[in-house]
Design goal:
This protein has 399 residues and is of the alpha+beta class. Helices cover 35% and strands 29% of the residues. The protein has 10 helices and 19 strands. A hairpin with a 5-residue loop joins β10 and β11.
C-alpha cells in the first residue's frame, strides 16, 4: 500500500468539511477531504445561511453563487392566534447581507463540492472511510478504506475532524463530550407555500400556547414548517421521507399539516409535502477541541439545538477561523496555536447554544394565561428600538 501525502486531511465531506477544504485550497494549502458517502448529497435538514457565513463564502467566491439560488428572508414576523404580534427587520443586521438566505442543504453541499473541485481538483475522495489515526510530533498518519474496501493511507501535517456529532475522529482521540438531552421533540416538513403573498418572503413564528410553529420560505415556491410536538405524538417517530404515494408517510404529512392549520389557521396541502423529518434536541460539547495536530470543527466539536438555525453556520465559522491558522502552520512549520482557536470557538459555541435554548424556551407549550403574557412580552419587545439588536442577534451578527 502506497502512502499518500497532503498538508491537511479533512475527515467528513459535509457542508463544514467541504467549506474548510475550499478555504484551504484558496490559500494554496494541499488538502484532501475524505467522505464516506458515495452518493450525491441528498436531504435538507439545514436551510438557513446567516450573514457572517455569506461573508465567509465570499472569500472563495461562493456567496453570489449561493444567493443566485436562495430565497432572501428580510423580515421575521411573530404571530399568535391569528394575530401579528410584531415584525423584525433584518435591514440593519449586516452591512453586506441584510437578510438571512435559505437554500436546501443538498444544494448548498453541491455548490460547495463544485467550489472545492475548482480550487483543488480531486481533493474530495468519496467512498473513503476513516479507520485509524496515528499521531506523531510532526505529522499524522491516517488509514482508511476506499469505496471498494481496499486500504488507503495518507500522511498529513494536520487532520481535521469535520465528521459530525458521532465523530469517529473524536472517538479515536479519546475525547469525551458533556451536555444534555432535551425532552422537546419536533417535526419539520416542506410544502407548497400556502401563505398570503405578502408573507411569502418572511420567516414566520407562531408562539401560541400549544407550542411553536416556525416556517421559512424556500426556493421554488415552497415553505418549511417546524412544529413542536406534544410528547406522546406519533409524529416523533424516526425521520422518514414523505411521499403522497406511500400511505403511512402521507398520513404523517396530513398530521403535520393539521397541526399547522390548528395552531395558525394556515393550511398546507399534504399532497405537496416533499420532505418530512422528526428530530429530538440535545446539546453536546467536546471536552477539548483537539489533540496535537488533530482538531475538531462543527458538530464534532459542539452540537446545539437546530432551533434558530445556527448549527451549520457555527461550523462554517469554525472553518473560516481555522483555515488561516492551518495555512500559516503549514507554511511556517508551527504546530498551530490551538488554545487561542479553541477559546474563540468554544466561546462562540456557548453563545450559540444559549441562544438556541432561549429560542426553544420561547416556543414551548404553556397554559393559556402564560401564553397571553408571552404574547404581550413579544409585542413590547418588537415595538421597542431593541428590536434592531434582536434582529442582529438572530442573524448571528455577533459571530
Amino acid at each position: 500500500m502506497t502512502t499518500d501525502t497532503t498538508d491537511v486531511l479533512v475527515v467528513g465531506g459535509g457542508p463544514v468539511g467541504l467549506f474548510l477544504g475550499a478555504l484551504l485550497a484558496a490559500r494554496g494549502t494541499a488538502v484532501q477531504v475524505w467522505e464516506r458517502r458515495t452518493t450525491d448529497p441528498v436531504g435538507s435538514r439545514a436551510i438557513g445561511i446567516h450573514p457572517p457565513s455569506l461573508d465567509a463564502f465570499a472569500e472563495v467566491g461562493l456567496a453570489d453563487t449561493v444567493l443566485a439560488e436562495a430565497v432572501l428572508v428580510r423580515t421575521g414576523v411573530a404571530r399568535s392566534r391569528g394575530r401579528v404580534l410584531g415584525t423584525l427587520s433584518f435591514d440593519g443586521a449586516s452591512d453586506t447581507h441584510p437578510y438571512v438566505a435559505t437554500l436546501d442543504q443538498h444544494r448548498t453541499e453541491v455548490l460547495l463540492r463544485d467550489r472545492l473541485d475548482a480550487g483543488a481538483p480531486g481533493a474530495l475522495r468519496t467512498g473513503t472511510a476513516l479507520v485509524g489515526l496515528t499521531r506523531h510530533r510532526d505529522h499524522v498518519d491516517a488509514t482508511g478504506t476506499d469505496r471498494d474496501g481496499r486500504p488507503v493511507e495518507v500522511r498529513a501535517s494536520f487532520v481535521v475532524g469535520a465528521d459530525g456529532a458521532r465523530s469517529l475522529v473524536r472517538d479515536l482521540l479519546g475525547i469525551g463530550t458533556t451536555g444534555r438531552d432535551y425532552p422537546d421533540r419536533y417535526v419539520m416538513g416542506d410544502f407548497a407555500d400556502p401563505e398570503d403573498a405578502d408573507a411569502r418572503s418572511a420567516a414566520l413564528v407562531d408562539v401560541g400556547a400549544a407550542g411553536v410553529v416556525e416556517s421559512f420560505p424556500l426556493p421554488d415556491g415552497r415553505r418549511r414548517y417546524v412544529v413542536l410536538l406534544p410528547r406522546d405524538d406519533a409524529l416523533a417517530d424516526p425521520a422518514v421521507p414523505a411521499a403522497a404515494a406511500d400511505a403511512p408517510e402521507a398520513d404523517r404529512a396530513s398530521r403535520l399539516a393539521a397541526i399547522v392549520r390548528n395552531r395558525t389557521g394556515v393550511a398546507p396541502d399534504p399532497a405537496t409535502c416533499s420532505m418530512l423529518s422528526a428530530f429530538r434536541v440535545r446539546r453536546r460539547t467536546a471536552d477539548r477541541v483537539g489533540l496535537g495536530r488533530v482538531v475538531l470543527v462543527g458538530d464534532a466539536a459542539h452540537e446545539i439545538s437546530p432551533i434558530g438555525g445556527q448549527g451549520m453556520n457555527l461550523g462554517w465559522l469554525d472553518a473560516a477561523d481555522l483555515a488561516p491558522v492551518l495555512a500559516d502552520a503549514v507554511r511556517t512549520g508551527a504546530a498551530g496555536p490551538w488554545p487561542v482557536y479553541a477559546r474563540r470557538r468554544q466561546a462562540a459555541a456557548r453563545r450559540a447554544g444559549r441562544q438556541a435554548e432561549a429560542n426553544m424556551a420561547l416556543g414551548r407549550a404553556v397554559p393559556d394565561v402564560v401564553g397571553v403574557g408571552r404574547e404581550a412580552l413579544l409585542r413590547s419587545v418588537l415595538a421597542l428600538p431593541t428590536a434592531r439588536a434582536l434582529a442582529r442577534l438572530y442573524a448571528m451578527a455577533w459571530a
